[in-house]
Input
Amino acid sequence: MARQKGMQEARKPRPAERLGLRVSAMINSPIAQLGRRVMIHRLDDDPQGAWEAVMEKLAETDGLNMTFNDDGTVTLEGGRREDEEEVVIADQEHEPQEEAAAPF
Output
């Protein structure tokens, strides 16, 4: 009985936590991971303070480029990870060329 009461009283996530989880889901989506790029946006019910806190946290992340768009969205792009190998394409008629690295 006491356990049920404790579960009912579980705290709700703060707005910054909720927004952080939503942004994290956008960043970790398969398409964003594949393209190393994602556009995030603020919802009408996201408090300004929560949005600014998440933007500050993202700005502190090494290797992450943030572009603030005119429409209020933010485009996040990441550089190549250190553990990734270069991909080299060989062609019989041409010298081997390096494939352009994904920006994320």
